């Protein structure tokens, strides 16, 4: 470099560029510090405090941690339900989404209609979709069990049966598969046609073509769908909460406290427990411990994502 | 398609007989394939569409019929929709949802564009770290940081009972929007920016005059996603607006609407459709931007 000739000018230019960069990044730098950095540190602080949001916080050491991890009766069910949903919901969503994606790429007539039909439910607001499903699957008044009964199928009690409540939530999430359909569809259309032709010349059948041509080229997208699915499902909240409340049939006014997770805690997830501890029981310390547990799991998954999908940081980095 | 015809065409003249005889069999196989694919597609379409149909049909039934499990309304009570609008508070929820989604989208787009631009086009130390931090916050469950944030908004700033604690942070960039916009901006060739700079345009001028117009589809996708995120948000309004029904949004109010009308499934389904309606209407006007946004996050990594 021509550092000898005009070093001060270059240094001034470098400083101007640094300031310019900081300027452009400033909205996010402020946001990250105030709305992410601060609360994260405060959460750690509160996790060592006894605090009911009225009296001043008092230091209690590891008492909240021990309470949540060893004694709290609902921690086990909530963690189990969340993990169950993470495994079952994500697996079925990826398989079903890929199936619908494959189907869409093969449709010759009315492709636009079908694509729109498959995509639309993804847009339905989660609360509206949940309210609709609780009605549709309602054992007494809903049309689904009526139809199934007419064709001789003894239908379950869906959201009102502890064994069926989570599968009902899975069904609801499969209905909103549109986002996965679109990314799988795009990935499938990106597979080079020549590779299929080469495989056909070698006498490959449909299965072999999928196994040796399609699959290797869409694996990164499947991986992406799995990891983002896991992160999303760990935040699973609205649908579980609304389905539980509505199916329980309890009339809920503002301020009334009901045990979440109807029936029998079968739909209680970790995020619901955070809300319940922090905003209904005012046990701020325990709620903060639980959010840190959630944070640890989320970070572990995110780190995995960074490793497995360096592609996220792509091209020019 | 073109590759297939190019490959098969030369073989036809050399074996005219062989070329003709498998044709009916191949055509039959293609027809069977067509039928199989479309049968599965129709079955799948029923799974996706029937819930909307049942919800709509129930929304126009009488109170009694909505409880009966009937599929087809004996009379069409369009007045159910008027009843929903006349429910105290329902119009306020519309107004609040529009305010939250409208301002939230505007703030997010304005604050995220410069950040995404810097992350996509500037070369500086710590760029990769910054990207990792953006993606980490994108992945973070909102429940992790909500408790201290709530305490600040409620106890120090006295803004709980309103939607401002949800709207104001959006003026400081949103990780998902930054990520999506950056992915989009990476596709703009550097030469455009450099030639603008040669013409004497400053960085801000380049951003506003060259980048923003070129990135319109990406910006549209981000705006749509953010609008829908706010419109659909339940957790946020539950945290900050729960104590004050005057600040509820449609998404939050809908569930309590059902609780208040505990037996009226017909009104509830009408309200449900009214909450879905804006999203679906906007989608039909902006399909392309949408699909582009979804594929951009997933594929163009």
Label the CATH architecture of the largest domain in chain B.
Orthogonal Bundle
- The total count of helices of chain A amounts to 13
Tell me the β content of chain B.
under 5%
What CATH architecture of the largest domain in chain A do you see?
A: Orthogonal Bundle
Main beta sheet strand tally, sense and closure of chain B:
none
What does this protein structure show overall?
The complex is a heterodimer of chains A (317) and B (301). Chain A is an all-alpha fold and 317 residues long. Chain A folds into 2 domains: 6-50, no CATH class; 74-314, MetI-like (MetI-like fold, Orthogonal Bundle), CATH 1.10.3720. Chain A has helices at residues 3-46, 63-71, 75-106, 111-123, 126-136, 143-150, 162-175, 178-189, 193-201, 206-234, 238-248, 270-280, 284-308, and strands spanning 49-50, 58-59. In chain A, a hairpin with a 7-residue loop joins strand 1 (49-50) and strand 2 (58-59). In chain A, helix 3 (75-106) crosses helix 8, helix 8 (178-189) packs antiparallel against helix 10 (206-234) and helix 9 (193-201) crosses helix 10. Mean pLDDT of chain A is 89; it is low at 313-317. Chain B is mainly α. Chain B folds into 2 domains: 29-78, no CATH class; 88-296, Orthogonal Bundle (MetI-like fold). Chain B is flat and about 70 Å long. Chain B starts with a helix and ends with a helix. Classes of the chains: A mainly alpha (317), B mainly alpha (301). The interface between A and B is large, with 113 and 105 residues. Chain B: It comes from Streptomyces antimycoticus. Chain B: Residues 94-286 form the ABC transmembrane type-1 domain. Chain B: It is a multi-pass membrane protein.
């Amino acid at each position: 470099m021509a550092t000898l000739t005009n070093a001060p000018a270059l240094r001034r230019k470098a400083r101007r560029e640094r300031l310019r960069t900081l300027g452009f990044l400033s909205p996010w730098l402020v946001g990250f510090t105030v709305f992410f950095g601060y609360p994260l540190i405060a959460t750690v602080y509160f996790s060592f405090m006894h605090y009911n949001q009225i009296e001043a916080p008092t230091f209690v050491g590891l008492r909240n941690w021990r309470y949540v991890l060893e004694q709290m009766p609902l921690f086990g069910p909530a963690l189990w339900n969340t993990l169950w949903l993470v495994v079952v919901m994500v697996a079925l969503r990826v398989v079903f989404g890929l199936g619908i994606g494959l189907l869409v790429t093969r449709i010759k007539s009315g492709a636009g209609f079908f694509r729109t039909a498959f995509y639309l439910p993804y847009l339905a607001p989660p609360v509206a979709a949940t309210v609709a499903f609780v009605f549709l699957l309602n054992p007494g008044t809903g049309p689904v069990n009526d139809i199934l009964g007419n064709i001789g199928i003894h239908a379950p009690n869906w959201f009102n049966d502890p064994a069926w409540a989570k599968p009902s939530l899975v069904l609801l999430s499969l209905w909103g598969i549109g986002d996965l359909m679109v990314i799988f569809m795009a990935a499938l259309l990106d597979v080079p046609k020549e590779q299929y032709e080469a495989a056909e010349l070698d006498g490959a059948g449909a299965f072999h073509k999928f196994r040796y041509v399609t699959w290797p080229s869409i694996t990164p997208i499947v991986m992406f769908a799995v990891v983002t699915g896991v992160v999303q499902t760990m935040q699973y909240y609205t649908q579980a909460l609304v389905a539980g409340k509505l199916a329980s049939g309890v009339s809920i006014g503002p301020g009334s406290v009901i045990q979440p997770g109807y029936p029998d805690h079968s739909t209680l997830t970790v995020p619901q427990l955070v809300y319940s501890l922090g905003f209904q029981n005012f046990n701020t310390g325990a709620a903060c411990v639980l959010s840190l547990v959630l944070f640890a799991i989320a970070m572990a998954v995110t780190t995995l994502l960074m490793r497995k999908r360096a592609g996220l940081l792509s091209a020019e980095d | 398609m073109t590759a297939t015809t190019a490959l098969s065409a030369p073989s036809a003249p050399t074996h005219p007989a062989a070329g003709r005889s498998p044709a009916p069999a191949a055509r039959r196989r293609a027809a069977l394939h067509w039928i199989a694919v479309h049968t599965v597609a129709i079955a799948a379409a029923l799974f996706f569409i029937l819930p909307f149909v049942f919800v709509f049909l129930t929304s126009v039934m009488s109170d009694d019929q909505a409880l009966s499990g009937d599929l087809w309304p004996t009379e069409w009570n369009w007045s159910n929709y008027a009843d929903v609008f006349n429910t105290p508070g329902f119009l306020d929820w519309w107004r609040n949802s529009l305010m939250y989604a409208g301002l939230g989208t505007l703030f997010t787009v304005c604050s995220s564009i410069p950040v995404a631009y810097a992350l996509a086009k500037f070369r500086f130390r710590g760029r990769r770290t910054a990207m990792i931090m953006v993606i980490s916050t994108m992945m973070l469950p909102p429940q992790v940081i909500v408790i201290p944030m709530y305490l600040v908004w409620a106890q120090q700033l006295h803004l709980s009972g309103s939607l401002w604690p949800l709207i104001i942070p959006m003026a400081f960039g949103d990780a998902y929007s930054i990520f999506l916009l950056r992915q989009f901006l990476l596709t703009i060739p550097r030469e455009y920016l450099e030639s603008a700079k040669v013409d004497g345009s400053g960085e801000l001028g380049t951003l506003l005059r060259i980048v923003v117009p070129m990135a319109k589809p990406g910006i549209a996708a981000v705006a749509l996603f953010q609008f829908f995120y706010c419109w659909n948000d339940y957790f946020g309004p539950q945290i900050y607006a729960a104590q004050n029904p005057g600040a509820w949004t449609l998404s939050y109010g809908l569930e309590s609407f059902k609780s208040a009308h505990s037996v009226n499934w017909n009104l509830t389904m009408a309200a449900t459709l009214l909450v879905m309606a804006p999203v679906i209407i906007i989608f039909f006007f902006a399909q392309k931007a949408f699909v582009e946004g979804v594929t951009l996050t997933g594929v163009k990594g």
